[in-house]
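It would be a great kindness if you could assist me with a short task in structural biology. The full record is reproduced below for your convenience:
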Amino acid sequence: MNQKISYEIVHIVASTEVHQKLNLNAIKKNYPNTTYNPDKYFALIYKLTDPKISILVNWSGKIIFTRAKSIKDIEIGRDLFFNDLISIGYSPILSDIKINNIVSLLDIRHEMNLEKIYESHKNLDLEIELEIFPGMIFKNNNPKFTALIFKSGKIVITGLKDLNQILESITEIEKKLEIKISI
């Protein structure tokens, strides 16, 4: 496999908690970068522009980070949110950040014959219905991920929980589907 594979992390979902109950109406009242409408959605949405992430805040103190492109963005977002909580009287406790899902994008820069790949690898967990979805779905167990493989050569990898598994998942795709991945 070519060691100069380039991929882009397009989305990380992660979670942590503040270890106390939160008054979401009070947070909304104090911060204009929030949205809270409990009739439509249970969580308060706290949006940041730098880094560009959203934090879904539950009254129980559990929080979910979305739209992040890196762990550093999540840490910065957590610190900004925690500082805002401190400024209105809360005492959040730092906890580990748990990665729930990583979505990455790989472009192998050549078209693929998805029907041929599918026919050659019926022993794998593959799904293809090009009339319904313009790609092939490949599910892998170790590491556990799902890859959406498109004729254009773009591959979306989702379901990973560790950044170190991205290259491992690319290796699995190349090896199991016999797809030449080079740049």
About this structure: The chain has two domains: 20-94, 101-177.
